[in-house]
Amino acid sequence: IPCTVTMGTLVPAASITHFPFGRAEEKEHTEVNDLSFPLAVRQPPTIVTQSPKDHIVDPKDTMVIECEAKGNPQPIFSWRRNGKYYNVARDPQASMRRRSGTLDIYAWKDPQEYEAEYQCIASNEHGSAYSNKILLRLSRPPLWPNEILEPVVVSVGFPLVLSCDPPRGPPRPETYWMSSCECLSRAVRQDRRVSTGINGDLYFSNVLFNDSHTDYCCNARLPHKHSIQQKRPVVVKVITTRTVSEAAPTWLSPIRSSSSVLVLQGEELLLECIAAGVPTPHITWTKDGEKLVVKPGMRIKNFNKMIHIPKASFDDIGEYVCSAANKIGYTERTIIVQVKAAPFWLEKPVDLVLAPEENGALVCRSDGIPRPTIRWFINGEALDTALPHPSRHMSGDTLSFRGVTMENTGVYQCNASNQFGYLLANAYVNVLHATPRIIPPQEEHLKVVEGSNTFLECRYFGSPVPDLFPSPADSGLHLTHSNGTLEIKQIRLEDTGTYMCIVTNIAGRDESQIRVEVKEPTLFVSRPQNLKVLRGSDVTFECGVKADASTPVTTTWLKNKRPLSLNWRISLDESNLVITTVNSADDGEYTCSIKTEMDEKSASARLMVMGTACLSHETSPFSSYADRPNPPTNLQLSDPHERSVRLSWVPGDHNHSPITEYQVQYDEDDWLPGKWRNLSTYPGNLNSVILQLTPYTYYEFRVIAVNAIGPSRPSRVSSRLQTGGAPPDVIPRNIRGVGTWRNNMEISWEWNGPYLKYLVWWKRKDSREEWKNATTKWLRYYIYDADTFTPYEIKVQAFNSFGLGPESKVIIGYSGEDRPSTAPLNLRVSDIESTQVTLHWDPVARNSLMGELKEYKVYYWRDSSQLRWLSVSRAMKSKGFPAVDTEYTGVLDELLPYSNYKMHIVVANNRYDGPPSHTIQFSTPEGVPSVPKSFRIQQRHLDTIYVDWALPAEPNGIITGYTLKYQTVNATRGEEMHVEEFYSNVTSFSVRRYDRYTRYRFSLAAKTQVGLGEWHTEESAHYTTEGGCSVLYPEYNSARTSECIMGRWSNRLTHSNTHTDTHTLVSLCASASPAYATDQVDLSTKGWLIGIMCAVAIIVLFLLIVCFIKRSRGGKYPVREKKEISLEPVDDKDQEGTFDYREEERGLQRGQASVEPIMKRTESDDSLVDYGDVEIQFNEDGSFIGEYTGTSRKDAARDARDVRDEMDYGGNMDLHSTMNAIYSMA
Hints:
Blueprint: E1 17-20, E2 43-50, E3 54-57, E4 63-65, E5 67-72, E6 76-81, E7 84-86, E8 94-96, E9 103-105, E10 117-124, E11 127-130, E12 134-138, E13 152-155, E14 160-162, E15 174-178, E16 194-196, E17 202-204, E18 213-222, E19 227-230, E20 234-239, E21 247-253, E22 258-264, E23 269-272, E24 274-278, E25 282-287, E26 290-291, E27 299-301, E28 306-309, E29 318-325, E30 330-347, E31 352-354, E32 360-363, E33 365-369, E34 373-378, E35 381-382, E36 392-395, E37 398-401, E38 410-418, E39 421-431, E40 434-439, E41 445-449, E42 454-456, E43 459-463, E44 478-480, E45 486-488, E46 497-505, E47 508-519, E48 523-526, E49 531-534, E50 539-541, E51 544-546, E52 554-559, E53 562-563, E54 570-573, E55 576-579, E56 588-595, E57 600-610, E58 633-638, E59 644-650, E60 659-667, E61 677-683, E62 688-692, E63 698-707, E64 721-722, E65 736-738, E66 744-748, E67 757-764, E68 772-776, E69 780-784, E70 791-800, E71 803-807, E72 811-814, E73 825-830, E74 837-842, E75 853-865, E76 877-882, E77 889-892, E78 899-909, E79 920-923, E80 932-941, ...
Parallel strand pairs: 3-12, 13-20, 22-30, 31-39, 41-47, 49-57
Antiparallel strand pairs: 1-46, 2-5, 4-9, 6-7, 6-10, 8-9, 10-11, 10-12, 14-17, 15-18, 16-17, 18-19, 18-20, 21-24, 23-28, 25-26, 25-29, 27-28, 29-30, 30-33, 32-37, 34-35, 34-38, 36-37, 38-39, 40-43, 42-45, 44-45, 46-47, 48-51, 50-55, 52-53, 52-56, 54-55, 56-57, 58-59, 59-62, 60-61, 60-63, 63-64, ...
């Protein structure tokens, strides 16, 4: 029989009585529910260790098939091979270990003969336990085929596929391509045009000349062997042509127009679409007709060519369509995704220990898609074929016992299976009679600290189950656990006393007592504080303690977690630590450790010794010395296990900033070393941690220290570690079973670890068929030939070469749905209103739905309007009505009044619509009309406003007239609302206004016999005196202004609403004629604007006054070294580039009659001459006067002569004002 082992033995819960003679307390105790089965009690066999169902071994080594069991008496082991008894003793190439069922097969000759199905049986006089059927397979190392690849010749622009055909796993190897296979190899660059497919092939959407290479190599990385194999290189020769023809997209992968992908829940899902074409096509994805929504965990990879879902779930089921498009054409492919699941546990049977005449039950609940089938066995024999027993009753997944006897003792097997896999659990029923026994506690006198949680142990065994005598109710502070442990929460001093535990049954009684003594807690009165001191100072670390008077206290000081040696500088003042004349060696962490016989506490502080060289009254004495820490050193690995290892290191110097944390990084990639990842972070006070790792993986580690300044450099890399193999420890999650076609079901689950395979179980729900199972390495599995929309029980179990993982619970899945076969009958309407109608119909039979009832869907369309002249759209619409068991009616709204409608109804499940019913017709009565079209406000004269309009787009009946309301908007006096009524044939109106500045707000509505329709409101335009053009577009509710600027037209249009009507553009252009601009605001009347302008004017005036004052003051001003015109001979003594205007003034007053010496050219005349006629003026500092003003040398000379003539003409004139004028002009 297919089976799975159940590990461990459960002891039934017993009742305990605790009599406190005083009150008690306890130290911390973590495991309060673990009980041991007494060794002297008989026990049926239980298999505790076995090899995985799919057991792959290396034929070069000894092939080991494990089978270990426990029981009393010691079990005897036997084996079956291919369903027949296997005599191990007579096989010279096999042996069974002593006192064990483990099978060692040496297979010196023909190891292939030992590839078979094995099953271990552990038996004693109380029953037989069966292991799984273990399929033994020999591993064969994968090798590339030894072949010579011919060169590939292809023309530019054509697609190309280079085949990889990597060696098969398991697991599937990771493939990558290199463009050179020798020492200078490099990976082929991936982009929209070039990509690697799921199967490892290299795809070129179109070939370029640069794709020519002497060799392309496909490399396969086998993670489970940590090796890389390389295929023989292939040469690609690209032939160039004069022109490259453009081509529409065609598919390279997948080739078929429609394909199906089956994945098991939790497995990896990869969907791929690669297209060829010139230009390179763009790939897009849709799911079930809608744009693909990227969920958490989903990734779009390979330049949109691949969908990667690490853990498939039932939400991923659907129809995926990938589309490829370029400017030449478009094509698409459909991929149907199905997710399946195997059986999983809802409730596993557990071992039973019963006394004679007691009752009990074994429960075996599982689920899967399809629903698993449950079968019961006793000692390997099917119960449905075994002889009936009066005390045993089997009902589906429950096996009940009433009034048990010794004959009911045995090992029972529960088998739950479906087509994707199976589950099997062993549970024994042990009928015995035993007096109560209490295992003596480890401590009979317990001293505890006040306020702690205390556990008093009272472990026991007995059959029948011992009772409490008497049975007190648990209080809030006292809790009795099922194994007899008494928990006292927040124990107090008054809880001191003796506690007695008493267990009784019909066979006898037993008792045990514990003395509990509660002490006051040890508390810190004063703690040491972090200190930063200068070298040579004295420091004191305080450590005041308060403890129980009867408890001796020992105080110990540590430095950097090591005992501190006392000397002439370091001493104790009672419990305080005193250090005199500190130096840099005293820098570190000091810990005050307080220890009593019951507890131990400590408090730490940091001493930072600062130097004196950087002390300053302006800077902190600490800032110059703080820095990033030095990297840790001497990394050591110890205590290696399959999933953990201890890493220790020596901390580096923290450089006067305490280390706050350590970051541990790892590198596990043997193919691309140096790719470091963060593993975990630990507090800065640790230097030895246990790392949680993945089994069967190579690791290297390094550590980074972090303080307030930043991280240190990474430490040196640790030695290389390979963790051992281990069975998986995570249950596959999100198991689902959903049909993707009418006769199939996809079982899927989420990925829960690398290098795993999965056992998938399924069976029909509520059926007696056996569980079916299958093994897969993917995250989904498909069941075919299933009935339409049938429930299945599903469960999934992960395993690897090291053993089986935990089994999942049983879930319910359904096979696929089909198209409903019948249509709803008697479709009718009632309560017809202008915009809605009430529908009624008769439901369809459940057996014709071919799936789950989703809704009834009505398809309807507007066939015509009752106004014969009005054309309508006959677009079909639909509305769904959720199914309600008691009501088959619904309200169809959003209809248009005064219209003729047609409709039919269908029934829909989750995938398909059924056939349509007969089509019925109905008409809606009149309603209120929509807003009138083409509402326009025209101002043909300055004193008259004209308004006109057209019929509503949807009259919704016979128009009987119009109502127009209008009122002034910008008038200073209030005016009442005017209302005008018009017949249906009147579509215009004019109104005289008081003056040209009066604006009106118009509101217009059409009406039928039912009432008024929607109102359209609009305001007339503003009046302005600026020259320009005003063109009104009432159908846009906006204004277009065309301005005449320098003989050109500039049009501006502001839209607020868009209509399809077109009106003539009327523009009036005049230089001073009035015009109107919609929504124009007169800013000149705004107070805030006037205030801003006044402030700006005051600031400008103030700046002008300051400027004039500075000009009138004189003095020295900086002057550029190089000037064209010098107003005074250059003084060799003045080399600072200054010019004294006061000296110039005094010189002129002394009667200098000529300025020719002043016109002497300096050596820098050509500094800006080469820049051409550039006008550059610097009017503020007077630095550039000559050529720097952009004038030529002749102009400068002419200006000088003019100045001289003026001086000759009036020699007594005030030259100072003349020179100021020249400077001002400059």
